[in-house]
Design brief:
single chain; about 160 residues; alpha+beta; four-stranded antiparallel beta sheet; three-stranded antiparallel beta sheet; 1 helix; about 15% helix
């Protein structure tokens, strides 16, 4: 009968743990995340091997005016796991902020994720005018008094 020493079993267990750790690190290294931010409209081409992305968009704020108050903030819209096709190109729109008494523009990733712009008249961008699996309304701007302006709405999300 052969005897097995417990010190040998401990060493085997230790090396098996190291091998498991190496495999996890190798797999993780193959799936690095890259964040790409856009501050102007552009085209986005999906890199090879990428089939799912996270998209976050904020609509632009509306313009306020003396006596009318601050403009509403843009809404937030997002999708934590949007299915995309490698090699396809998607249009990214970054909405421009509204001039005095004008609405802010929507920001979007194609028509798949749309964050509504803020409204003049102090209204924040709405959830109803946004698309995505996650949506938050923009904050309302404060009312103005006399010749004074009100504060702008707070950012959504």
């Amino acid at each position: 009968m052969r005897k097995i020493h417990t010190s040998n079993l401990k060493a085997i267990g230790f090396f098996a743990s190291l091998i498991s750790l190496f495999i996890l690190i190798s797999i993780s290294a193959g799936y690095a995340q890259v964040i790409q931010a856009f501050n102007s409209s552009a085209a986005f081409t999906v890199p090879a091997g990428v089939t799912s992305i996270k998209v976050e968009a904020w609509g632009s704020g509306a313009g306020g005016s003396t006596g009318y108050g601050g403009g509403g903030a843009g809404a937030f819209a997002g999708n934590n796991s949007l299915t995309v096709i490698p090699g396809n190109t998607y249009t990214i729109t970054v909405g421009n902020g509204g001039a005095a008494l004008n609405n802010g523009a929507a920001s979007s990733f194609a028509n798949l994720v749309v964050a509504a712009g803020g409204g003049s008249g102090n209204l924040g961008g709405t959830v109803a005018n946004s698309t995505g699996t996650i949506r938050f309304a923009g904050g309302n701007g404060a009312n103005g008094a006399g010749n004074g302006g009100g504060g702008g709405g707070g950012s959504a999300g």
